[in-house]
Amino acid sequence: MSQKRSQARRHAVQAIYQWQMVGHDVGEIANQFLEEQDLNGFEVTYFQDLLHGVPKHLDEIDDLLKPALDRAIESVDPVERAILRLGTYELSFKPEIPYRVVINEAVELAKVFGAEMGHKYVNGVLDQVAKQVRTVEIKSKQKR
């Protein structure tokens, strides 16, 4: 995956975290991020898609996460919650991106922003979500 797309995810996680914590309008948060960042350093349209997609599909995302979590979504560390929501959005609404790429990117984000062992939690949860929403893709990979 391109470095610019990885950077878009990184900014999106920060923006989603901010949205979760303060509840500002997603458009305002997006504008703030775009004013502060070097726009050549990341894929702006992908950042926008992720930032607007997570709140728009929040109920679906949280419903997919519920069976994979060992606690209520509100009890998950806010940084890891943002990463899990972003990863679940990509798994559900970005079928062109291989599920392993989505999970790997989320794990890398958790290593940077999350708690010490948060990346293992993110990996386990998103693996379960992938089994729900990417069944065909996972089975085709297992046959090879």
Set out the fold topology.
Layout: H1 3-22, H2 26-36, H3 44-56, H4 58-65, H5 78-93, H6 99-113, H7 118-133, H8 135-143
Helix pairs in contact: 1-2, 1-3, 1-5, 2-3, 3-5, 4-5, 5-6, 5-7, 6-7
Describe what you observe in this structure.
The chain has 144 residues and is mostly helical. It has one domain (3-143): N-utilizing Substance Protein B Homolog, Chain A (Orthogonal Bundle). The chain contains 8 helices and no strands. The protein starts with a helix and ends with a helix. The mean pLDDT is 93.
Shape summary: globular
Largest sheet: none
Which structural class do the helices and strands define? mainly alpha
Number of domains: 1
Summarize the structure.
The protein has 144 residues and is mainly alpha-helical. It contains eight helices and no strands.
Features:
single chain; mainly alpha; N-utilizing Substance Protein B Homolog, Chain A; 144 residues
